[in-house]
Amino acid sequence: MSKINTVIVEDSRLARNELKEMIKKYSRISLVGEAENVDQAYELINETRPDLIFLDINMPEKDGFELLEMLDEVPITVFTTAFDEYAIKSFEYNALDYLLKPINEKRFAVAMEKIEARLEAMDSKSSGHESRLTDKSQIFIKDGEKCWLVRIEEILLFEIVGNYTRVFFKEEKPMLYKSLNQVEEKLPLANFFRANRQQIININFIKEVVPWFNGKLKLTMTNGEEVEVSRRQSYIFKDKMSL
Asked: What is the C-alpha R_g of the chain?
C-alpha cells in the first residue's frame, strides 16, 4: 500500500511530539513535515503536497480555518483542538474528523480508519506536482460565516459575479473570491468546459442540450440552471461531445 504523506500543523511543540508518537505506530503514515504557524504550513503544504494534514484550529495570528482559505487544493483534513466548541464548527468545513486534545490513542485509531477509507475511495494520486486539480481534489470556500470543503466533481457550474465567482453545488451558491479565469486555470480539462465568457460548466451535470439561435446551443443543467453556449464555443462543444 502506498504511503500517506502527512503534515502536522500545530503551534505547541508538546502537541506535535504527542502526535508524532502516535503516528509512529502506523507504518503507512509518512510524516513529510511539521509547521508551528499558518504561514509556515502554507509553504510546506504547497511544497510537499501531502495527502493528509493534522490541523490545529486555534493558533496565534492566523487560525486553521484561515489556512484552508489560503490553499488552492485542500488535503484530507483532521482537525486537532483543545476546545469542544470548535468540534461542531469543524463539520461545517467538511473535515474528515476532529481529535480533542489530549488525544486518546483509541480515538486516534478511529481517525486512522476514516483516513484509510477515504483514501481507498479516492482515485490514486497523480504523480508529480500537477498544476491542475483533479475531480477528487477539495477546495475551500468561505462566504460570510458559512464555509465548505467541496470536491471538484461535486461542482456543476462556475459563474462570474463582478470580480468574483459564484460556485454551484448541491443546493449551495456561495461566492469564491477568485476570478473565473483564475478558477479555469486550475480545473481538470476532461469534465469542465468554458461555455461563454461568464460561465464554466461541469459536463457531467448537463441534463439537456438544444439548438439555439445563430448556431448557439442552450444547455439545461441538472439543477435547472440554463446556460447559453456562445457560437464559437458551441462548435468546440459539439466536437468535444461528438455531437
From this structure: 20
Write out the chain's pLDDT in tens, 243 residues: 688 999 999 999 999 999 999 999 999 999 999 999 999 999 999 999 999 999 998 898 898 888 988 998 889 899 888 877 665 565 556 667 888 888 889 999 999 998 888 887 765 444 444 568 888 888 888 887 778 888 899 999 999 999 999 999 998 999 998 899 999 999 998 999 999 999 999 999 999 999 998 889 999 999 999 999 999 999 999 998 886
Sign of torsion, CA 109 86 30 188?
A: positive
Beta strands in the chain (DSSP E): 4-9, 29-35, 52-56, 76-81, 97-100, 138-143, 146-151, 155-161, 164-169, 175-176, 192-194, 199-202, 206-211, 217-221, 226-229
Could you tell me the residue ranges of all domains in the chain?
A: 4-121, 152-240
Topology (CATH) of 152-240: OB fold (Dihydrolipoamide Acetyltransferase, E2P) (2.40.50)
CA neighbours within 13 Å on the CB side: how many for 135?
Answer: 14
Task: Match domain 4-121 to its CATH number in 3.40.50.2000, 3.40.50.300, 3.20.20.70, 3.40.50.2300.
Answer: 3.40.50.2300
Q: In terms of pTM, does the model score above 0.85?
A: no
